[in-house]
Amino acid sequence: MTGTPKKQEVKERIRVAVLMGGPSAEHEVSLKSGHNILKNINRQKYEAFPIIIGKKGEWQISPAELKKKADVGFIAMHGTYGEDGSVQAILDKIKLPYTGSPTLPSALAMNKYLTTELLKGAGIAVPPTLLVSKTEWVRNPFKIFEQIKVYINYPMVVKPNDNGSSVGVSIVKTKGELISAIENVFTLSRGALIQTLIKGVEVTCGVFDHGWPESAYPLMPTEIVPKVSSFFDYRAKYEVGGSLEITPARLSQPVSDLIRRAAVQVHKAVGASGFSRTDFILAGNHELFTLEINTIPGLTEQSLLPKAALVSGISFSDLIDRVIIAAVHKYTPREMCGNIMSKFFGVSV
């Protein structure tokens, strides 16, 4: 007897621990991302539950206990600890597969200055950049001002070297504003990144992959027009109606393709995995400058990556699927994720 073979069914739901919170300035944003994942995850495929990490880094349960309860960790933590390789190293130690980039690429991408230097070495244009440590600033601020005169032009962008969500970012036009901006950064970080402000169109572009670098593919770029601020700061990012976000960006096809290629190039250069989102400035002469890469893009209802994905026909539930399956594929040797593949596909690996 012949006929169409039955579609293989999932044997049982994959247990997904959604890690959120953490000891960073982006604690609250992380909680929003985590709860949005729990709200939209496909409950027919996944048995999902939250793991909230406190503002002092305290876990609800020990990592060892988490290993017994989960098949995969979905990291929804932004900023230090969650995005800088710290939590990734903890999950590596207990051999629990997790979403997003591995430990070393995470640590690299969180250090904006090192990322900038890496991208420069790869032939990717970045704004003129200077890193100032808190120790250098306290010891000899006059020397810092002399260095800034040589390398950076006003207006300037001053931001923490290791935070996200535009926390602590300032645009400065005078020496007085520069002093205040640097001192403000040092309440958040031990490193201040100072860059020449590139005037142009703010764009961002998301990238997904299947768990290996060669599979990376970009979404359509998004044009960002801040409405409540002069640039895409924390308010413009997370306040409802804070900015106009246009996907696809109002750009010619060649320029759009340039941005998409650059986003994939940055994703690969950093060693990102699963997904990422890279921010750019398109100058008036169509020269593209890379600002930074986000290895764990925001996944709130206001976040850019889910909105851009939706324009491409990728629902939030599908986005979660893609990120989890990329995490499964990422792990070798196979025994680290064999039980998950068996559950998801109904086959042994």
Strand content: 15-25%
Helix-strand topology string: EHEHEHHHEHHEEHEEEEHEHEEHHH
- Main sheet record: 6 strands, antiparallel
Average pLDDT for all residues? 87
Q: State the helix count.
A: 13
**Which structural category fits the helices and strands?**
alpha+beta
Low-confidence stretches: 1-8, 333-337, 345-349
Instruction: Please count the beta strands (DSSP E, at least 2 residues each).
Output: 13
* Silhouette: globular
What Rg is obtained from the alpha carbons, in whole angstroms?
21 Å
Helicity range: 25-40%
Euclidean distance between termini CA atoms: 29 Å
Helix and strand topology:
Layout: E1 14-21, H1 27-40, E2 46-53, H2 63-69, E3 72-75, H3 86-93, H4 103-110, H5 112-121, E4 129-133, H6 134-139, H7 141-151, E5 156-160, E6 170-172, H8 175-185, E7 191-196, E8 200-208, E9 217-218, E10 222-226, H9 234-238, E11 243-246, H10 253-270, E12 275-283, E13 288-294, H11 304-311, H12 316-330, H13 338-345
Fold and architecture overview:
- The protein is α+β, with helices and mostly antiparallel strands and 349 residues long.
- The chain is built from 13 helices and 13 strands.
- It has helices spanning 27-40, 63-69, 86-93, 103-110, 112-121, 134-139, 141-151, 175-185, 234-238, 253-270, 304-311, 316-330, 338-345; strands spanning 14-21, 46-53, 72-75, 129-133, 156-160, 170-172, 191-196, 200-208, 217-218, 222-226, 243-246, 275-283, 288-294.
- The strands form three sheets. Strands 8, 9, 10, 11, 12 and 13 form a six-stranded antiparallel β-sheet that branches. It has a four-stranded antiparallel β-sheet with strand order 4-7-5-6, sandwiched between helices. A three-stranded parallel β-sheet has the order 2-1-3.
- The longest helix has 18 residues, at 253-270.
- The chain starts with 13 loop residues before the first strand and ends with a helix.
